[in-house]
């Protein structure tokens, strides 16, 4: 089975690809030199595959490449996961690191009225 990894966005396309998306979008705020980020990356890529096309999007934002987006959203630490649903941000607990834990948390958020 071919994997569908998270893909990157920048400040320029964030509004279109995340805020105005018809799908829930999980954003992984990431830094290439961050060991916890590197350890979480395969889990995020598997999560992207698990949700499949048309269910949800998984996007990665790199700290060194897009500091403005980090500042705009007040992301201070990496890795940080935020699920955007209909333009609204839902911060995910930084201690959740397994695919099962992330899926459970995402499901809880999506079920909220």
Can you walk through the features of this model?
With 113 residues, this protein is α/β, with parallel strands linked by helices. The protein has a single domain, classed as 3-Layer(aba) Sandwich (Glutaredoxin). It has four helices and five strands; from the N terminus they run E-H-E-H-E-H-E-E-H. A five-stranded mixed β-sheet has the order 1-3-2-4-5, sandwiched between helices.
Q: Count the domains.
A: 1
Mean pLDDT across every amino acid position? 86
Number of strands: 5
Strand order of the largest sheet: 1-3-2-4-5
Q: Helicity level, as a percent range?
A: 40-55%
Intertermini distance: 35 Å
Name the CATH superfamily assignment: Glutaredoxin
Order of helical and strand elements: EHEHEHEEH
The residue ranges in which pLDDT falls below 50 over 5 or more consecutive positions are none
- Given the structure, what is the number of helices? 4
What is the percentage of strand-forming residues? 15-25%
- Computed Rg: 13 Å
At CATH's second level, what is the architecture?
Answer: 3-Layer(aba) Sandwich
**What name does CATH use for the topology?**
Glutaredoxin
Class of secondary structure makeup: alpha/beta
- Mass-distribution shape: globular
Largest sheet: 5 strands, mixed
Q: What is the CATH class designation?
A: Alpha Beta
List keywords for this structure.
113 residues; alpha/beta; Glutaredoxin; five-stranded mixed β-sheet; 4 helices; 41% helix; 22% strand; globular
Question: Any chance you could write out the topology, listing elements then pairs?
Answer:
Blueprint: E1 7-8, H1 11-19, E2 25-30, H2 35-51, E3 57-62, H3 67-73, E4 80-85, E5 88-92, H4 99-111
Parallel strand pairs: 1-3, 2-3
Antiparallel strand pairs: 2-4, 4-5
């Amino acid at each position: 089975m071919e994997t569908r990894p998270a893909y990157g966005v920048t400040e320029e396309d964030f509004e279109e690809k995340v805020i105005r998306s018809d799908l829930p979008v999980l954003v992984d705020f990431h830094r290439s030199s961050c060991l916890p980020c590197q350890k979480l990356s395969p889990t995020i890529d598997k999560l992207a595959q698990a949700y499949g096309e048309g269910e949800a999007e998984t996007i990665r934002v790199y700290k060194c490449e897009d500091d403005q987006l980090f500042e705009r959203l007040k992301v201070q630490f990496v890795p940080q996961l935020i699920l955007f649903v209909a333009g609204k941000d839902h911060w995910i607990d930084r201690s959740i690191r397994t695919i099962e834990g992330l899926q459970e948390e995402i499901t809880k958020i999506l079920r909220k009225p």
